[in-house]
Each structure stands twice: as structure tokens, then as C-alpha cells.
Amino acid sequence: MDKTGSCLCGAVTYTAKDIKPEAGACHCSMCRKWSGGVFIGVEAQPDQMTIEGEEHINRYPSSEWAERCSCSKCGSSLFYRLTMPGPMQGVYHIGFGTMDDQSGMTFAGEIFIDHKPDTYAFAGDAPRMTEAEFMAMYAPPEN
Questions:
Q1: Closest CA to 70 of 54, 47, 89, 87
Q2: CATH of 3-137, one of 1.25.40.20, 3.30.70.20, 2.170.150.70, 3.40.50.1820
Q3: Dist. CA 127–CA 110, nearest whole Å
Q4: How many other β-carbons are positioned within 10 Å of the β-carbon of residue 14?
Q5: Separation CA 59–CA 57 (nearest Å)
Q6: What is the CB-side half-sphere exposure of residue 3 using CA atoms within 13 A?
Q7: Eight-class DSSP state of 38
Q8: HSE toward the beta carbon, residue 16, CA cutoff 13 A
Q9: Regions of the chain short of the pLDDT cut 50
Q10: Count of C-beta atoms within a 10 Å radius of residue 71
Q11: Which whole-number Å values give the CA distances from 59 to 24, 54, 75, in the listed order?
Q12: 20-61 pLDDT, tens digit each
């Protein structure tokens, strides 16, 4: 599935090619502060992303493993990109709301569910992971 999107003012546009039609929610404190609420994102591989208006992207290194990217003109949160070494380096997590057309997507699940505020909940039985469960997926193998 191919999707296009942009920031609010249109200074930054993107095309994400051949992505899985799945969106996921993150409740970690960084995502909540960056997006103003729950972050709902769609994963795209680095070689699947074409970005126009790169000169208008603010890149903020929010952790040792990721950078948060927004438009320098209108302030829209666009995506975060994994920067840690390894097989996930460069992977984008595009903000669902920045997509021009969200049709055809399904809800794949939630992470950092133990950090979710009590003020909202998603319907359905999509997979839910705590911070510890999620981080264990990326832990280095034990020797």
C-alpha cells in the first residue's frame, strides 16, 4: 500500500511506498508530549520513504534511539525515526493524522499501555504491551 501525506502547511510532503496497512498507538511520555496525546503511527522502511521539503524539517534527538521530526514552518509533528544501530535503524513511524488518506488501514495494537492516561481507551481486542514487554523485544540477546 502506498500513502502520501504532509504537514499542516504543506511545506513537507512524503510518499511512503509498500507499507503494511496497520497503525499502532504509543502511550509513552515522549510520544504524548510530542504529539499532544496518544501517538498513532504507521511504520515505513527508509527505502520506502520519499520526502520533499527536507529543509523544513526540525529534527530533535529525543532519546538515544530516536529523533522526532516536525515542520519548521507550521510545527506539525510528522514522524519519528529510529537512529539506534542495528536492523531497525532508519525506520520511520509516520503520524497517522499526517496521511492524506487513512482508508484501508487497520488498528494493530498499543504499546506502553501501562503509561496510558485513564481519560481514553481504544475499542476492540488489539494486542497491548506494557513498557517492559515492548522493551524486551529490543533487548540484546543474552550471552
A1: 54
A2: 2.170.150.70
A3: 6
A4: 23
A5: 6
A6: 26
A7: -
A8: 28
A9: none
A10: 21
A11: 22, 10, 12
A12: 999 999 999 999 999 999 999 999 999 999 999 999 999 999
| Cα 131 to Cα 28: distance, rounded to the nearest angstrom | 8
Cα 20 to Cα 99: distance, rounded to the nearest angstrom = 14
Task: State the cell numbers at 56.
Answer: 523544513
- Torsions phi, psi for 38 (to 5 deg): -65, 140
DSSP string, 69-123: EEETTT--EEEEEE-SSSTTTT-EEEEGGGBS--TT-EEEEEE-GGG--TT----
- Let me know: does 134 contact 111? Beta carbons within 8 Å: yes
Answer whether 58's CB lies under 8 Å from 52's CB: no
